[in-house]
Amino acid sequence: MRIYDIIKKKRDNHQLTKEEIEFFVQKYSKNEIPDYQVSALLMAIYLNKMTKEETAYLTEAMMNSGDVIDLSKIDGIKVDKHSTGGVGDKTTIALAPLVAACNAPVAKMSGRGLGHTGGTLDKLESIPGFSIDMEVDDFIDAVNKHKIAVCGQTAKIAVADKKMYALRDVTATVDNISLIAASIMCKKLASGANSIVLDVKTGDGAFMKTLDDSFKLAKAMVDIGTEMGRETVGLITDMNEPLGHAVGNSLEVIEAIETLKGRGPSDLVELCETLGSYMLVLAKVADDFDDGVDKIRDAISSGRALEKLKVFIENQGGDKNIVDDYTLLPQASEIIPVKSEKSGYVSKIEAEEVGIAAMILGAGRETKEDELDLSVGIVLNKKVGDYVNKDDVLAYIHLNNMEKYKSSEEKLKNAYKITDEKVENSKLIYGVVT
Ligand code: URA
C-alpha cells in the first residue's frame, strides 16, 4: 500500500477502505509519512468528505494509535460528558460533583483550552494546589472511593489525533464534520467510558455556527459512539451568548460553586439539570429524564453536591476552603465596569467577541505556549433580554495589566447589541440526537 495511492483515491472522490485508513493513521503516528502528504490527504477529505463508514474507521484507527484506558475496575456504568466548547462553559465543574453526588461514577479526562474557549483543566487549576496529573491506577481508585476524578488526557491517548489536529489547524481543514467527529470521539472512546453525553454547542461562539451543522455533527458523533458499542446521546445547546455570567478561569470556578449552592445563573442551572439527567439515565441511576432532573435538584438542595465538590478538590490536592472563601482563589487587582452608551434591550451578546475580550486579558491562549492569568476575565452584568439605561453597567472587566484594558473593553462593547425592541431569548436546548 502507498500513501500516494490513498491520496489519489480520495482526491478522485472514492471511498477509502478500513485498511487504507488504518495504514495512513498508523504510519503517520509513527512519523513514517511526512506532514505534506497527510496535509494533501486531509484536504482531499475536507473537499470530498467522508462516508459514515470511513468516519467510523478513522475514529477507531485514531483511538488505537495510543493508549486505550480500561476503566472496568470501576464499579458501575461510567458516563462521560463532552462539550464541543463554548464561552463561559464551566459546566463540568458543577456537573461532575452533581452526578457523582447522585451515585453515578464520574471518571473524566479533560483537555485544555485553546483560543477563545477555556478548558476545564485550566479552570480547575485556578484552585490552589489542585492537580490534574494522575496515574491511571490512582484515577481508578479515586473514582471507586469518591465517585469522582478529573484528570488531564495523557500525551499517549490518540497519538495520531494529536498530530493530525495540529496539522489541520495550519492547513484550514479543521471545520469538517467527519474530521471533528472522529477527533473528539477517538479521545472519548480511548478514555474508557461506557456511555457518553455530548453537548454540541451551536451559535456564533461555537465551532458549529449553524443549527444544521450542529445537528449533523451531533449525529456523526452519536453514530460513531453507537457503532463502537457505547450508548451515546447528543444535545444541541445554545452558544449565541456566553453561558452564565463569568468568563475566565477562577471567575468560572466561583460561578460553578454558586450553582452547587443553589444560586447559579438560570441557563447554567438548566444545562446542568438537562445534561446531568441524561448522564444519570445512561448510568442507570435514574429511571427517566424527570427522575434524573429531580435527583440533580435534590443533590443541590441537600448540599450533597457541594460536599462532593469539597471531597473532589481535597482528593486532588486542592484547597477545599475555596468553596467557602473565594478570596483564596486567584484575584485580579482591578475590576472595571463597562457602561452602556445607550438605553434599550440587550438583544445579543456575541459570545466569540466576549471570549476574545477575555483572552486578550490573559484568560485564554492564543498559542499553545501562552501562559494563562487565572485571575482575569469578564463578568457579564446584563444578559440577552435585559433592559439597560444609558450608563448602566453591562459587564465588569477583571484584570491585572491596564495596558490590555482598551482592546478588551472595545471587544466587549462590540459584543453587546442594544436595540429598542425586546428580542425573544434564544432557546438553551435545541434538540437531542440519539
Ligand atoms: N475538538 C477536538 O478535539 N477535535 C476537533 O477536531 C475539534 C474540536
Automatic annotation (TrEMBL):
<dbReference type="InterPro" id="IPR017872">
    <property type="entry name" value="Pyrmidine_PPase_CS"/>
</dbReference>
<comment type="similarity">
    <text>Belongs to the thymidine/pyrimidine-nucleoside phosphorylase family.</text>
</comment>
<dbReference type="GO" id="GO:0005829">
    <property type="term" value="C:cytosol"/>
</dbReference>
<dbReference type="Pfam" id="PF00591">
    <property type="entry name" value="Glycos_transf_3"/>
</dbReference>
<dbReference type="InterPro" id="IPR018090">
    <property type="entry name" value="Pyrmidine_PPas_bac/euk"/>
</dbReference>
<dbReference type="InterPro" id="IPR035902">
    <property type="entry name" value="Nuc_phospho_transferase"/>
</dbReference>
<dbReference type="InterPro" id="IPR013102">
    <property type="entry name" value="PYNP_C"/>
</dbReference>
<dbReference type="InterPro" id="IPR000053">
    <property type="entry name" value="Thymidine/pyrmidine_PPase"/>
</dbReference>
<dbReference type="Pfam" id="PF02885">
    <property type="entry name" value="Glycos_trans_3N"/>
</dbReference>
<dbReference type="InterPro" id="IPR036320">
    <property type="entry name" value="Glycosyl_Trfase_fam3_N_dom_sf"/>
</dbReference>
<keyword id="KW-0808">Transferase</keyword>
<comment type="subunit">
    <text>Homodimer.</text>
</comment>
<dbReference type="InterPro" id="IPR017459">
    <property type="entry name" value="Glycosyl_Trfase_fam3_N_dom"/>
</dbReference>
<dbReference type="GO" id="GO:0006206">
    <property type="term" value="P:pyrimidine nucleobase metabolic process"/>
</dbReference>
<feature type="domain" description="Pyrimidine nucleoside phosphorylase C-terminal">
    <location>
        <begin position="345"/>
        <end position="419"/>
    </location>
</feature>
<dbReference type="GO" id="GO:0006213">
    <property type="term" value="P:pyrimidine nucleoside metabolic process"/>
</dbReference>
<dbReference type="GO" id="GO:0009032">
    <property type="term" value="F:thymidine phosphorylase activity"/>
</dbReference>
<dbReference type="InterPro" id="IPR000312">
    <property type="entry name" value="Glycosyl_Trfase_fam3"/>
</dbReference>
<protein>
    <recommendedName>
        <fullName>Pyrimidine-nucleoside phosphorylase</fullName>
        <ecNumber>2.4.2.2</ecNumber>
    </recommendedName>
</protein>
<dbReference type="Pfam" id="PF07831">
    <property type="entry name" value="PYNP_C"/>
</dbReference>
<dbReference type="GO" id="GO:0004645">
    <property type="term" value="F:1,4-alpha-oligoglucan phosphorylase activity"/>
</dbReference>
<comment type="function">
    <text>Catalyzes phosphorolysis of the pyrimidine nucleosides uridine, thymidine and 2'-deoxyuridine with the formation of the corresponding pyrimidine base and ribose-1-phosphate.</text>
</comment>
<dbReference type="InterPro" id="IPR036566">
    <property type="entry name" value="PYNP-like_C_sf"/>
</dbReference>
<keyword id="KW-0328">Glycosyltransferase</keyword>
